[in-house]
């Protein structure tokens, strides 16, 4: 299928002096005139039916396109195989004999507008007698810049071909995200009646489509608890009630190949979503009081049982991580790497993964096989070495994805016809073996577009729908995978995310709950590796850079502020240090202080709990030893597990030791000692003097006492003499 385009120079228009505001958006000129041929009914024409086709001219320039004739031509013989069909739809019209079968005229088309016309080709005599097959069909428009040609096909079904089962994989995803989870507003929009998620369920309900469900969508609803939008909760219940077979994609539909190519042993998953849950949203409802039973009289009193402690009814009850991610009725261990990214090594690694006793299945496009790379049909059930694979047809899947993304029926018919043509030839090649197709990863699709794509498969002749379980009962054929070149940018991003997460894990040891940082980091990086980002590489690169910068800011969010120089004059003092915490959580750190000189004596470590979003002041007690000079104190924050936090700082301290004080003390001691010695000597001298005085006094007393005695002894004699 080719929608012909012509590049037309954009014509300058004179500027207006004043312009009135346009009540509706004006289409932006693309500089392209598009011409599309779209057969009605997906190109299927049964015996006796006419061929009806539409031709559409889209004017993407800022100049009107004049009217012109359109001719419709049909090949006289069917295309021989799918390679020839690929070439024809790709615009290679050489060596194909065509016969003009219809004509019409397109009118003038204003800038930014389009015109559609129908061409009807009667069954007889032009179409009569044609056998089954896919016939080349082309439309030509003679415009002012030359002839535009659009190619398509007409399919005449073969009622004798063996019926083939076809499985259709429909992804249930939300498109590219840079954050870990959808917000409440995003969920409300996606699950509204006209939202993309609602459209997806509208399209698959009542069909046998195989659902590939992104668990991040379900988790985003469940983490909101009672505050989840009503439409989102109803959508989740509706998904669970569907009978479709299903499997779980990686969280955020994360691309598997870059993860394994970067050295991961297996695909990563979220570690915690607790950060996204609010306690108020998970308070269990109050239990309904039970009626008190009427007491029955008994002869023997029944002992009163010891009451069992009950949980606090007002405490929140959170779902576990597996409960948040649960996809009801899933077939576990199914992997779907992005188209063309899974090498043989990646498939082999995935093939070794099991879920209990269930072996894995890996979906790969047919173009990743040696047979399918040449355009041949590859049936679904296969074995690549020891790894079980499901091969989906790349050409049919791409056409279905293109069709499901178009809202205009006149344009949608072109890719639907291409898908039907490829499927018709694939059914003929398969010989009854099952086929698998997908609708691609485009998340922004309408219900009508999805329904039309699904109907194109189920209405193709000789097909019937298959569930995922049905494929496992089919015999597998050997499949050889082609070499696949790694996506260097995405592999480098996966490796960088892993390194950043390791740094963040060391940093997060300052939290009571490290998962508050590690949970959003893992879920966000998985979203950034989502397959949906492949459609916009530039915006993806910007989102990756912004996320990594945000992670670096988080790691730098706790640290020491610069410390000014300190003059240490007094013998002891406190050096103030400020810790900044930019996180919304309190952190536990230890401040280590190491002087480079023995002049200062200080406390080597101080545990600190810094409140959220504040600067915390910490005082380091310091004592000056003998000596003066400059001392540098190295300050470093560490986590309780001794991980360095932030950059170290140096506090420069000038020490002025008090030698005079110590000298005066020494002199005072000496003088005091001399005084004490002098006092002692004085006391001792006085003691000796007192003892000497005491001895002299005793001698004098004895002499005085002896003199009267002597006088008394001689007096009678004298008296007698006088007588």
UniProtKB/TrEMBL annotation:
Keywords: Membrane, Signal, Transmembrane, Transmembrane helix. Residues 256-317, 688-723 are annotated as: Disordered. The chain crosses the membrane at residues 662-683. Residues 690-702 have a biased composition (Basic and acidic residues). The keyword Membrane applies. InterPro entries: DUF6049 (IPR046112). Residues 282-310 have a biased composition (Pro residues). Residues 703-723 have a biased composition (Low complexity). Residues 1-17 form the signal peptide. This is 2-oxoglutarate dehydrogenase. It comes from Microbacterium ulmi. The lineage of its organism: Bacteria, Bacillati, Actinomycetota, Actinomycetes, Micrococcales.
